[in-house]
Amino acid sequence: MKQQLSNILALAVITMxxxxxxxxxxxxxxxxxxxxxxxxxxxxxxxxxxxIHPTDPSQSLIIGTDKEVGGGLYVYDLDGKxxxxxxxxxxxxxxxxxxGLDINGKKTDVAITTERNAHKIRVYSLPDLKPVDxxxxxxxxxxxxxxxxxxxxxxxYTKKDAAQNTIYAxxxxxxxxxxxxxxxxxxxxxxxxxxxxxxxxKFGTYSGKKEIEAIAVDNELGYVYYSDETVGVRKxxxxxxxxxxxxxxxxAQHDVKSDHEGIAIYKTSDSTGYILLSNQQNNSFVVYPRxxxxxxxxxxxxxxxxxxxxVECDGAEATSFNLGGKFPKGxxxxxxxxxxxxxxxWNLIQARIDKGEGK
Length: 359
Known about the structure:
By secondary structure, this protein is mainly beta. It is built from two helices and 25 strands. InterPro entries: 6-blade_b-propeller_TolB-like, B-propeller_Phytase. Keywords: Signal.
C-alpha cells in the first residue's frame, strides 16, 4: 500500500510538471499509466537498462543513470525500490548491460555507463555493482573539438561464437564529425582482472542538427540503431568484422514532434518484435516492426504512437522475459522527469499497439 501511494503521488507530481512546462505537451488524459514508479534519485534520471537474473527472472534489476556531476548508477528492484547505488561520478549519461564478460576465467555480467565529463566509460560487475575498470576507460582519445570527447550514448553488441562471446561497446558523444561520430570498443579483461577497451571501428552519419545520444543494439539480428535528434533514426550493422559501414536505413523522419530520443527493442522471437522510439516532446512512443515493413527489413512504417505518463523521456529499455508478478510479458522502462523511471507492464503497451493507436 505504501509503495502504491508513493507511485500515485509521484505520478501526480509528474503530470503537474508536464502541464506547467513551457512548450511541452501535457501528459495525455488517455496515456498509459505506469505499473510502477521508482523511488527518486538525487539529481536527474536519464537512461535505464534491464539486468535479467540468470536463474530467477523475478529477481531481475533495473539499472539507471542519475545524470549530474556527483550522480551515478542506481539499482532498483521490480517494485521500484533502490537496492544499491554508486555515486560521485562525473555526469554519467547512458547505461547498458553486457552478459558473460570473461574476467579471469569467470563469466561476469557488467553494467557499462558513459562518464561524460571524465571522457570515460565505466564498468561495474553485476549484481554487486563493483568497479572492474581501475577508474575507467578513456574514450574518443585524440579528438580536439568542444564536446567531441563527451561520451553520452552507449549500447552493447555481443558477438556469439563457439569459443566465447566477444563484447563491444558502441559509444556516442555530444558532437563529432559525420562518418565517425560513433566509436566501437572491444572490451576485454587482462590477467589483473581490469577491463580495458580497444577501438575497432569509427562510423555513423550525423546531420549536425543536434546530437546523437540514444543507441540500441539488436544482438540477434546484428544491427545498431541510433537517434540523430530532430532528424531520424539510422541503422547500421553492429559487427565490425563485416567491414561495412553502409547506412542500411534512415527512418522516423516525419513521425516525431521534435527530438528522437530513447530506443528500446522488444523481442517476440529471435527475429520479430518491435522498435520503440521516444517521441520526447509528445510524451509518447512511436512503434515500428523490428523485422521491417512489408517484407523489407530496412523499411519501417509506423505501427502506433502510444501516449505514456513519462514526461520528456530521454532513455528507455524493454524486455519480453516473463519477470513474474506485475510483468508476465516483460516491461517497458522509461525515464521520466521527476527523478524517476516508469515501469510499464508490456500487456498495456501491446494492447495499444494492437489498436494501432496514433497511427
